[in-house]
């Protein structure tokens, strides 16, 4: 495949952006898509910042205090926004911030941060506190690491700095910073003791998805030790080093963590996906194989065959309603986009536009292989580009996040939220059924008949 | 949820828990959306504008545009001047707005970018405009940012030619598109020629057409903003939010102003109508008098249900004051009146209202957070809460109804199309409040007490 510079839709595309858009055409990829870089100044980018990346990864740790050190905005925008469910503590759904004011900016915010941590420690004595350093913290000269170190010693607790000034990279950098913060916690619990169990990485328990997956592991006899970070707690996280395999779902956010755990604890990792029947089945079997557990493998084959058959019944019932419809995908990570293309293929739908915010070169290669000819592939798209290509390709539905929903609606295009605002779990076989329901509910809704087209 | 909220209120010096505000740039972005063919621009890291757009989209359920200077490590050291210049060029080339409204962020303020001189050095295409305002996130709140952006437009664009245009300049303060439409309806009915800044109706409450317009037809035009300097006088609605912009216009163009509370409830709307009448010297038309009469009629109908009900009200200062006034008019007891936005006049204004209605022992606090409000409620419960979505966990924990008003409301639909201001807005507030009280009664009373006729 060679990336063809877009000709037909030249209007609306910045010169600098052309390298981030390719049409899939026959042939072999030369230099590939330009991705994983910063947004162009002036672009109406859908992309968030380092802090956002760090926060979304750590936020689901249910019994942690998340203190945002900075002016109030960063805390306000991320207060209980993720839809991560908990079976235990719900402390993470409360917003804590130092709400830096002008005097703090002039005289430094270290004192206020120290006082904030003291207020938290003395009232609640938590085991774990994350302190997020936002944009101005470094600029005004606060040494957050030093404050955290002193406070950790004073209270004998894990008070962990998360280096996340927004300007220091993009959302992917934030994922790394979150992974570093996690490592600085669990590194303390490194052990030679190994048990036959896995950790799940990159699942944030949106709408309760991790419960579905954990149930599968239970069914096929595989023990889950820790989950990163959906429905996790201090006690569950620190046992992670004992596991003998890490399975990585959201690769964009968690591969870095998996690599570090491999290096430091000798835990190998496996990239998996639980979106779509195909991915779910192959992931479960591959995990059993990676553990060398032939009994689990046999169970997995039996279990997945049954589950696939059940899901297939539902898909079949809907296929006639959805066949031939055209889908556009704009999601955060590359792996999710890949799973979605596969799901649409199963439904007999054609993916005509596909883009991600943080997809890597490897992801885009897989996407190019999976995609139909002439599919538009975009990195870090802006609304104008999304609009241009969705219209040009006649998309019937867009799968995206909060900012894309109203855009799709304005264009009279159906929508499915596959991000923080998803209303139902979309992983596993149950997720496939929910996904098909959601797609159908929007795409075949009578409301579209009333558009003034 | 909220098991962590202890009853005992301890003075907190450093920690803000569950804020009742957000930062200035979000408000600046919202204000800029109320200008025709304007692209709001955030001079800071790329995450800021993504957050603000998400936040506003969740409230309005509409696409919200905004661009960013996308600061990098380099710009945070050497300043963001070149980022902004590149951004402006890219924006005019690609998105073709008539005007770019730049607001700063905590980062660009702290590193000290001088936006005035950066903009002076720009090559701005003929017929295009770039304006800015300073919105340091560590001062005030989103409401302050809104005010600063409105004043920014005035400072850059308004001018006095010496020939009066016979209009009233209106600074409507922070409202929903539904509120802005209500103001326009009332001013038209009162035969007042006006220019209103900003005006997000027609931008964030657009009709479904199957087409996406990056710049819908709504919003105050640049010509109108320029003409504000030739207005006969200006009217600031919502004293904390709008008076500074009226002052800015007076300073720049010598236009005298009048600042009144947001026209919410009977008395404040009466004040608004009378101010319009003084301007137009016309009689109040029947349709306005009829609306007022209808609202009073409704209040008479529902007064047995609202009287004596204790209410906790939280949100943005002028909106909270407006709701408080109306609750007092309904015979309710505003027990807790809270805003996250700092400012001294909030407390004074609320206290004056309480005194007028003979209400004692209310807690009125600016720069407070919702954790504090919840603690107050644990010590002395209320019957109902009124405010934005972020109080929903408290309402659930305490088992009381929450009436959603103000900003942000991110868990309900349609609200942004509907007014809370004017007599019509009063009707809507009355309906929301009394329905919440009666629904609660229906679902919580004992079986034997369920009434068919209420």
From TrEMBL, chain A:
Pathway field:
Cofactor biosynthesis; Fe-Mo cofactor biosynthesis
Nucleotide-binding among keywords:
no
Q: Where is the Nitrogenase/oxidoreductase component domain?
A: 49-443
* Superkingdom of origin organism: Bacteria
Tell me the keywords, alphabetical order. Answer: Nitrogen fixation
Keyword tRNA processing included in the entry's annotation: no
InterPro entries (alphabetical): Nase/OxRdtase_comp1, Nase_comp1_CS, NifE, NifE-like
Please give the Gene3D superfamilies that the UniProt record associates with this protein. Nitrogenase MoFe cofactor biosynthesis protein NifE, C-terminal, Nitrogenase molybdenum iron protein domain
| Gene Ontology terms for molecular function | nitrogenase activity
Q: Name one GO biological process term.
A: protein-containing complex assembly
| Summary of the function given for this chain in its UniProt record | This protein may play a role in the biosynthesis of the prosthetic group of nitrogenase (FeMo cofactor).
Which family does the entry's similarity section mention? Belongs to the NifD/NifK/NifE/NifN family.
**What NCBIfam families does the annotation carry?**
nifE
Q: What is this protein called?
A: Nitrogenase iron-molybdenum cofactor biosynthesis protein NifE
TrEMBL record, chain B:
Q: Which PROSITE patterns does UniProt cross-reference here?
A: NITROGENASE_1_1 (PS00699), NITROGENASE_1_2 (PS00090)
Q: Which Pfam families match?
A: Oxidored_nitro
InterPro entries found in the cross-reference section? ChlB/BchB/BchZ (IPR050152), Nase/OxRdtase_comp1 (IPR000510), Nase_comp1_CS (IPR000318)
| Nitrogenase/oxidoreductase component domain segment(s) | 23-437
Q: What is this protein called?
A: Nitrogenase molybdenum-iron protein beta chain
> Keywords assigned by UniProt?
Nitrogen fixation
Enumerate the GO terms in the molecular function aspect.
Answer: nitrogenase activity
Q: Which family does the entry's similarity section mention?
A: Belongs to the NifD/NifK/NifE/NifN family.
């Amino acid at each position: 495949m060679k990336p063809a510079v877009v000709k037909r839709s030249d209007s609306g595309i910045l010169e600098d952006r052309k390298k981030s858009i390719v049409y899939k055409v026959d042939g072999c990829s030369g230099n590939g898509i330009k991705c994983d870089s910063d947004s162009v100044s002036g672009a109406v980018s859908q992309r968030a910042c380092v802090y956002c990346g760090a926060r979304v990864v750590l936020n689901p740790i249910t019994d942690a205090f998340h203190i945002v050190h900075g002016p109030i905005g960063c805390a306000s925008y991320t207060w209980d926004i993720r839809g991560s469910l908990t079976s235990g503590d719900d402390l993470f759904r409360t917003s804590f911030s130092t709400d830096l004011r002008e005097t703090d900016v002039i005289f430094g915010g270290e004192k206020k941060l120290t006082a904030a941590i003291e207020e938290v420690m003395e009232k609640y004595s938590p085991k774990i506190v994350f302190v997020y350093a936002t944009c101005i913290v470094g600029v005004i000269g606060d040494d957050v690491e030093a404050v955290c170190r002193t406070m950790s010693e004073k209270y004998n607790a894990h008070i962990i700095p998360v280096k996340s000034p927004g300007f220091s990279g993009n959302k992917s950098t934030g994922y790394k910073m979150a992974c570093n913060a996690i490592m600085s916690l669990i590194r303390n619990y490194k052990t030679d003791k190994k048990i036959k169990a896995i950790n799940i990485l990159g699942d944030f328990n949106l709408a309760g998805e991790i419960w579905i997956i954990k149930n599968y592991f239970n069914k096929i006899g595989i023990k889950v030790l820790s989950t990163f970070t959906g429905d996790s707690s201090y006690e569950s996280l620190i046992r992670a080093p004992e596991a003998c395999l890490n399975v990585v779902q959201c690769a964009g956010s968690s591969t870095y963590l998996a690599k570090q755990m491999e290096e430091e604890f000798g835990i190998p990792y496996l990239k998996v996906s639980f979106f779509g029947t195909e991915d779910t089945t192959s992931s479960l079997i591959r995990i059993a194989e990676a553990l060398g557990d032939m009994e689990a493998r046999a169970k997995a084959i039996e279990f997945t065959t049954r589950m696939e058959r059940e899901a297939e019944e539902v898909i079949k019932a809907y296929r006639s309603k959805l066949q031939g419809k055209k889908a556009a995908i704009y999601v955060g990570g590359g792996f999710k986009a890949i799973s979605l293309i596969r799901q649409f293929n199963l439904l007999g739908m054609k993916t005509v536009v596909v883009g991600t915010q943080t997809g890597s070169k490897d992801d885009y290669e897989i996407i190019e292989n999976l995609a139909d000819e002439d599919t538009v592939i975009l990195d870090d798209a802006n609304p104008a580009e999304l609009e241009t290509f969705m219209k040009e390709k006649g998309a019937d539905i867009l799968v995206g996040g909060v900012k894309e929903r109203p855009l799709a609606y304005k264009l009279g295009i159906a929508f499915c939220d596959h991000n923080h605002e998803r209303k139902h779990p979309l992983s596993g076989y149950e997720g496939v059924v929910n996904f098909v329901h959601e797609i159908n509910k929007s795409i075949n809704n009578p409301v579209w008949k009333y558009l003034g087209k | 949820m909220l098991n962590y909220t202890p009853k005992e209120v301890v003075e907190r010096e450093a920690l803000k828990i569950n804020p009742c505000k957000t930062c200035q740039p979000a408000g600046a972005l919202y204000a800029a959306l109320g200008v025709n063919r304007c692209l709001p621009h955030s001079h800071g890291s790329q995450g800021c504008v993504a957050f603000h757009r998400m936040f506003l989209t969740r409230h309005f359920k509409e696409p919200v545009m905004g661009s960013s200077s996308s600061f990098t490590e380099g710009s945070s050291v050497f300043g963001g001047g070149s980022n902004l210049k590149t951004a402006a060029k890219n924006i005019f080339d690609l998105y073709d707005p008539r005007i770019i409204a730049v607001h700063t962020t905590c980062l660009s303020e702290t590193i000290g970018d001088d936006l005035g001189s950066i903009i002076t050095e720009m090559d701005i295409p003929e017929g295009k405009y770039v304006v800015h305002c300073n919105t340091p996130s560590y001062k005030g709140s989103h409401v302050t940012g809104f005010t600063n952006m409105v004043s920014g437009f005035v400072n850059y664009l308004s001018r006095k030619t010496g020939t009066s245009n016979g209009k009233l300049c209106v600074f409507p303060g922070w409202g929903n598109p539904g509120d802005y439409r209500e103001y326009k309806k009332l001013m038209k009915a009162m035969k007042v020629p006006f220019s209103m800044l900003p005006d997000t109706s027609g931008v964030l409450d657009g009709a479904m057409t199957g087409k996406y317009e990056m710049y819908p037809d709504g919003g105050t035009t640049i010509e109108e903003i320029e003409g504000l300097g030739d207005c006969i006088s200006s009217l600031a609605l919502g004293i904390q939010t709008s008076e500074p912009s009226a002052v800015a216009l007076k300073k720049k163009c010598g236009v005298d102003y009048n600042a009144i509370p947001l026209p919410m409830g009977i008395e404040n709307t009466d004040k608004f109508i009378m101010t319009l009448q003084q301007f137009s010297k016309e009689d109040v038309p029947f349709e306005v008098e009829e609306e007022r009469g209808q609202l009073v009629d409704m209040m008479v109908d529902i007064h047995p249900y609202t009287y004596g009900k204790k209410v906790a009200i939280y949100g943005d200062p002028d909106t909270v004051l407006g709701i408080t006034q109306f609750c007092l008019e309904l015979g309710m007891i505003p027990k807790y009146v809270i805003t996250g936005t700092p400012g001294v006049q909030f407390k004074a204004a609320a206290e004056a209202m309480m005194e007028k209605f003979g209400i004692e022992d209310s807690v009125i606090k600016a720069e407070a957070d919702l954790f504090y409000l919840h603690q107050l409620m644990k010590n002395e419960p209320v019957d109902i809460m009124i405010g934005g979505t972020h109080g929903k966990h408290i309402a659930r924990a305490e088992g009381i109804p929450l009436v959603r008003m103000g900003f942000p409301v991110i868990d309900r639909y349609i609200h942004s199309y509907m007014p809370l201001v004017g007599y019509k807005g009063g009707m809507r507030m009355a309906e929301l409040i009394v329905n919440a009280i009666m629904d609660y009664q229906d679902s919580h009373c004992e079986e034997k007490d369920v009434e068919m006729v209420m």
